[in-house]
Design goal:
The structure is a single chain. This protein folds into 2 domains: 3-118, Rossmann fold (3-Layer(aba) Sandwich); 134-290, Tumour Suppressor Smad4 (Sandwich). The chain is built from 9 helices and 15 strands. The chain has helices at residues 22-31, 46-54, 67-77, 96-101, 108-117, 146-149, 152-158, 160-170, 232-244, and strands spanning 3-9, 34-40, 60-65, 86-90, 120-128, 132-134, 137-141, 177-183, 186-198, 202-203, 207-208, 221-227, 252-257, 259-272, 275-295. Strands 5, 6, 7, 8, 9, 12, 13, 14 and 15 form a 9-stranded antiparallel sheet that branches. A 4-stranded parallel sheet has the order 2-1-3-4, with helices on both faces. 44% of the residues are buried.
């Protein structure tokens, strides 16, 4: 008897290239022992609702879309007592999760092969406040608004270049914020240009953490904080440290923690897996250790 595969498709992700090889991918999955049922999203939150309502009926749940689609699917599966393994067809613009997992990007046929040949691995999920989740990153500060502020038509037409152009437009508006960050190892205070809690080696397609620094199922997340430098040379030191992966700059902090609470003196906007997450004066993020398994 064939296994049941739920495939959630976000038709707006990337440039719609999933259509090219989708029939071949479905045939490959069928020959590999999966009977696939397609579910299409029509707007934000649909993937979460579909995964929560129907996920328990299937042996595997997979999605075609970007990191935001995967994030929604995981949020839906977090509502289930025993969520099935998750497969991912990365068809987004930045694809940080795919980069971390070395998954084939924008290739439905190759992604289908990975589901058939891959292995389910424990995958930590982030908690965002009381009832929200994130798959790989929650962040505030420099460039974090770019992914959700970039118009969808530009994303489709220009791909990653759209983010670069939008990021350049935000440079004059970058401001440091006063923050107090409490984490498992202590407390950090000061003015910060950027802060995030993540479970990924690729952060916004720009910062790359070393593979040995990140374990996707160890129950800990990576806390990244960038202090406001006091001089122009300080900006250069931060960029050099990030680009060379030396991470020896005192203004670039990379810590490991299960929980972090951020307190600000005014509401600060956040992004959650590249989507707008709201503005907060206080926000607690946490790590849920391995509630799901991701196939790669």
């Amino acid at each position: 008897m064939k296994k049941k595969l739920m495939l959630i498709v976000n038709p707006a992700a990337g440039r719609g290239g999933y259509k090219l090889n989708l029939p071949d991918a479905l045939q490959l999955l069928d020959r590999g022992g999966f009977r696939t049922t397609l579910f299409f999203t029509a707007g934000r939150g649909d993937a979460t609702a579909l995964a929560a309502e129907h996920g328990a009926e299937y042996d595997t749940v997979a999605c075609i879309g970007g990191d935001g689609t995967l994030s929604e699917v995981l949020a839906g599966l977090m509502r289930l007592d025993n969520p099935p393994p998750v497969g991912y067809f990365p068809m987004g613009t930045t694809n940080d999760v795919a980069t971390t997992l070395d998954l084939p990007k924008n290739d439905t046929l190759a992604a289908a092969r990975r589901i058939l040949d891959g292995t389910p691995h424990p995958f930590d999920v982030g908690g965002f406040g009381e009832k929200e989740y994130f798959a790989y990153i929650a962040a505030f500060g420099a460039f974090t608004e770019v992914s959700y502020a970039t118009p969808q038509n530009q994303k489709k037409a220009l791909g990653h270049l759209a983010y670069v152009l939008q990021g350049m437009a935000t440079l004059p508006r970058i401001e440091a914020v006063n923050a107090r960050v409490e984490y498992d190892g202590g407390t950090v205070e000061g003015r910060f240009l950027y802060g995030s809690m993540s479970n990924s080696t690729s952060v916004a397609g720009i910062l790359r953490l070393k593979e040995e620094m990140v374990s996707l199922g160890d129950g800990q997340s990576e806390l990244v904080l960038v202090r406001e430098p006091q001089t122009i040379d300080g900006f250069g030191a931060i960029l050099t440290s990030a680009l060379t992966q030396s991470f020896d700059c005192p203004d670039l902090l990379i810590l490991h923690t299960k929980r972090a609470t951020f307190r600000f003196d005014k509401p600060v906007p956040w992004t959650r897996d590249g989507e707008e997450g709201g503005a907060y004066t206080e926000l607690t993020l946490c790590n849920y250790p391995s509630p799901v398994e991701l196939i790669f």
